[in-house]
Write a structure and sequence with these properties.
Oligomer: single chain
Strand content: 5-15%
EC number: 4.1.1.23
Number of strands: 8
Structural class: alpha/beta
Catalytic activity: orotidine 5'-phosphate + H(+) = UMP + CO2
CATH superfamily: Aldolase class I
InterPro entries: Aldolase_TIM (IPR013785), OMPdecase_AS (IPR018089), OMPdecase_type-2 (IPR011995), OMPdeCOase_dom (IPR001754), RibuloseP-bd_barrel (IPR011060)
CATH topology: TIM Barrel
Enzyme class: lyase
Largest sheet: 8 strands, parallel, barrel
Number of helices: 12
Family: Belongs to the OMP decarboxylase family. Type 2 subfamily.
Order of helices and strands: HEHHEHHEHEHEHHEEHEHH
Distance between the termini: 31 Å
Length: about 280
């Protein structure tokens, strides 16, 4: 049987730490690197960042949209990034935020979570706002191939607040998503394969995460303002399950690969010190 994603992730984090390094070829970052905003610039940026970071972290998170913006040639670059991250020993969490119903959701699952697909990642992000149950094809494909799914729950963008904090039978919509993910992870060891996305800049204690038994992807760390101390405050006892995601703070150190690695190691040390000072590991 294929080893489950939750087990592979736990082993990778134990070996390399919890930091999730984003590869976001934003046009503004390409310009900062002195690169053209075409496919050649995209390829130079993405592969340089991959070479610098993928051998140092447990998880790399490419943002698919910036590759897709360049059409088929951009997607081909993304395929290379996925392959090279794996070759460097990193798990690939592809940030695609897909969410649909029926056969369309099944097609997305086939593209990103099925063996043999050139875009198949170790895990993907998905949106549950057409209904958590509509994501069933993704859960099934992930379970069959030993992959993972991270479901958007309480994101860090202000536009999501009204929907995600709305009441759903005495709990917030975001909490209902966490609870549904927890139900899928019940009994899994060392953790389940269904994670949630919860912003690192959110209000401490807003969500009950202790029963999730799965990973928490925490965007908002680094350039967006959240620190290692903030992570301990926001996530408390579940901090060992948190994957703080940093993109711009690392990528702005490029195109010098050594500078990117240096910043990454500094952040990893900060996270280790923050976790120990909180007494959670």
């Amino acid at each position: 049987m294929t080893e489950r994603f939750g087990a592979r992730l736990a082993r990778a984090v134990a070996a390399r730490g919890p930091l999730c390094a984003g590869i976001d070829p934003h046009p503004g970052l390409l310009a900062e690197w002195g690169l053209p905003g075409d496919v050649a610039g995209l390829e130079r940026f993405a592969l340089t960042a991959t070479e610098a970071l993928a051998g140092e972290v447990a998880v790399v998170k490419p943002q698919s949209a910036f590759f897709e913006a360049h059409g088929a040639a951009g997607v081909a670059v993304l395929e290379r990034v996925v392959a090279e991250c794996r070759a460097a020993g990193a798990l690939v969490l592809l940030d695609v935020k897909r969410g649909d119903i029926g056969s369309t959701m099944a097609a997305y699952a086939a593209a990103y979570l099925s063996d043999g697909s050139p875009l198949a990642a170790d895990a993907v992000t998905v949106s549950p706002y057409l209904g958590f149950g509509a994501l069933e094809p993704a859960f099934e494909a992930a379970a069959a191939s030993g992959r993972g799914v991270f479901v958007l729950a309480r994101t860090s963008n202000p536009d999501g607040e009204a929907l995600q904090r709305a009441d759903e039978g005495g709990r917030s919509v975001a909490q209902s998503i966490v609870d549904d993910a927890a139900a899928r992870n019940a009994g899994a060891e060392p953790q389940g394969d269904v994670g949630v996305v919860v912003g690192a800049t959110n209000v401490p204690g807003e969500l009950r995460l202790a029963g999730l038994n799965g990973p928490v992807l925490a965007p908002g760390f680094g350039a967006q303002g959240a620190t290692a101390a903030d992570l301990a405050t926001v996530f408390g006892s579940v901090l060992p399950a948190v994957l703080p995601a940093s993109s711009r703070a690392l990528l702005r150190c490029g195109p010098d690969g050594g500078a990117m690695r240096g910043e990454l190691r500094r952040v990893q040390a900060e996270l280790t010190a923050g976790t120990r000072s909180d007494g959670t590991s």
